[in-house]
Amino acid sequence: MNDAKTNPQEQKAAIAFSSQAPIFDALYSTDDIIQYKRKRVRQHLQRYLSPTSNILELNSGTGEDAIWFAQQGHRIHATDISEKMQEVLENKVKSHQLQNKISNELCSFTNLDRLHFKGPYDMIFSNFAGLNCTHELEKVLASLSALLRPGGIVTLVILPRFCLWEFLLIFKGMFATATRRQRSSKGVAAKIEDNMFNCWYYNPSFVVRHMKNDFILLKTEGLCTIVPPSYISGFAKKYPRLFKWLTVKENKWKESWPWRFIGDYFIISLQKKTGANL
After folding, report:
1. Residue of 229, 249, 255 lying closest to 166 (CA atoms)
2. What angle do CA 38, 81, 96 make, to 5 degrees?
3. Where are the chain's structural domains?
4. 3-272 maps to which CATH number?
5. Structure pTM?
6. What is the separation of C-alpha 70 from the centre of its chain, rounded to a whole number of angstroms?
């Protein structure tokens, strides 16, 4: 099943990310800021994960998070629209002998009604801006309640419409990059190698507004608000003491205003109301 064919923009994103699938882990697994981001997301998740949770992962990529979930004792159904990413995930699951913990399915997050395994799940998770590849985020959010048990958790990691670090690039004369998030209502062009696709940016208020009928907000954190984004190449290695100091400050203020709103990403968790229908 290749649901990406039903949405040209998602198909373009799938092609772009598929081009990096064979080398994705090698490119990013040793990057200190990316490792910091993963650690932060996982610390957030551990607040809400119950033992042996049943988890639906959207845009699972090469399966780094799925492997981590499984090693913590959870059961994961990992979905993506990139066939190449799913192939890497399948190979990784076999090499770790986690076939009894991780299943996978080629499925777009805008077509979750077509899932073969509909739960109900204890948690739905999407990491590192996969959901920014659609202009139909409200459609995705509307489909989550039916897949989640009452009391279940949704945790999403999304690019907001303002990033302090990115905006500061205006002082380097990079006006287009510094203001691209504010000009994203019709999509902003992004590129991986020679493959173009569009991105859209969403604030936490958008997520809360479209989920308020069935969910309550638990927590919002800024990610890479004080710590620089990972695209500032080599920062942690060039300035290790400064990087450590910035991580301490970000961990202190990540939930405070305005820091929870102005990072490269925000992490948001919501809980399904116990009275909400499956």
Report:
1. 229
2. 50
3. 3-272
4. 3.40.50.150
5. 0.93
6. 18
